[in-house]
Amino acid sequence: MGANSAAGYQLATGDPVMAIGGFNGTDPWPTLAVFEKLVSEHEIHYFIAAGSGGPGAGGSAESTEITSWVESHFRTVTVGGTTLYDLTKPSASTAS
User: Fold this and answer.
1) Is 96 among the domain residues?
2) 59-87 pLDDT, tens per residue?
């Protein structure tokens, strides 16, 4: 959540990283509907689980909705001690 968190991942990997909630994680962008569309179009591959700066710690309502949706629909994978959600692999309970 937020560009401050996303920047470190982008610098470390060289891959594009989309910050949820803008610079501080408090902007209402993207909406859940936009996020779902981007996932369905395979524009987003991973979701990094929020840490201390995420929802509940000043995040937007939209970021909270996105996090809840991701947690209930996708599987986790741990890479280098970081929990990621693989948005290409729905959880067994939501796979069709």
Assistant:
1) no
2) 789 999 999 999 999 999 988 888 899 99
Contact 54, 35 (CB under 8 A): no
In a domain? residue 46: yes
pTM of the predicted model as reported, rounded to 2 decimal places = 0.82
- What is the span of the domain harbouring residue 79? 3-90
Q: Does a structural domain hold residue 63?
A: yes
Q: Which of 92, 85, 89, 93 is nearest to 68 (CA)?
A: 85
Q: What is the pLDDT of residue 25?
A: 83
Q: Residues 94, 76: contact at Cβ < 8 Å? A: no
Task: Tell me if 50 is assigned to some domain.
Answer: yes
Q: Is the dihedral of CA 90, 19, 48, 44 positive or negative?
A: positive
Number of domains in the chain: 1
What is the rounded distance in angstroms from the CA atom of residue 14 to the CA atom of residue 12?
6
- Please provide the DSSP assignment of 53-71 as one string: TSTTTT--HHHHHHHHHHH
